Amino acid sequence: MRTKKKRPCKKCRVGKKLLIAFCLCTVIGTGYFLLNNDTPDVKAPPVTYTVQTGDTLWGIADKYKADNQDIRVMYLQIMTDNHIRHNEDIHPGQKLIISRK
C-alpha cells in the first residue's frame, strides 16, 4: 500500500519563499556593503607636524591625504583642526595637528 505524501500547507510554502527572499537580500546587501566600504571606520591617531621652511598647506595636505581622498578635503580638515583662517600664513616651527583616516 502506497501512502500519499502530504503537501505542505499554503502558509508554509509562503513562509519558505519569504525566508529564501530574506536570505537572498541579506547576502546581496552584505556583498554590496563589503564591496563599497573601502575605508574602515577606525581612524588613525592624529599626527603632529612641524612646519618647515617652504611648506604650504596644500603640500602638507597632499602628503597626508589618503590615496582615494580629495586634497581639498584634507586641506580644509587641517585648517579646521588647527583653527587656521582662509589666507592665513603658516610659519616654520608651527605645529599642526593632522587627523587621518
Enumerate the strands of the largest sheet in spatial order, edge to edge or round the barrel: 1-2
Q: Termini, distance in Å?
A: 72 Å
Mean pLDDT: 80
**Residue share in helices?**
40-55%
- Order of helix and strand elements from N to C terminus: HEHHE
The percent range for strand residues is 5-15%
Shape: rod-shaped
Oligomer: single chain
Which secondary-structure class do the elements indicate? alpha+beta
Structure write-up:
This protein is α+β, with helices and mostly antiparallel strands and 101 residues long. It has three helices and two strands. The chain has a two-stranded antiparallel sheet. The mean pLDDT is 80.
Describe what is shown at a glance:
Helices cover 46% and strands 13% of the residues. The chain is built from 3 helices and 2 strands.
List keywords for this structure.
2 strands; alpha+beta; two-stranded antiparallel sheet; 101 residues; rod-shaped
How do the helices and strands line up, and which of them pair or pack?
Blueprint (H helix, E strand, L loop, with lengths): L9 H27 L7 E7 L6 H8 L6 H11 L13 E6 L1
Antiparallel strand pairs: 1-2
Helix pairs in contact: 2-3
